[in-house]
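Encode chain A's predicted structure.
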Amino acid sequence: MAKKEETPQRRARRNYEIRNKEEREQATKQFNTRLSRGLHDEICSFLKEHRISKVELIYAGYEALRSQLGPQNQPNKE
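Encoded structure for chain A:
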């Protein structure tokens, strides 16, 4: 497979990635999980139908669980 042509835009993007890689890794994390194909497809179609991002789903689920479990189980913010 041949490499793509080196362009100023590709070079600038690569330099940006190199300079900011560590900062981005410290600023964000991923949830790596596996779902059955059927459940994954169902969730994705629901999100697409309602124009909800996966990140919004995670925030909403987290907030729902926090309110359901109550303040006694929430970590202290110090």
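The mean pLDDT is 88.
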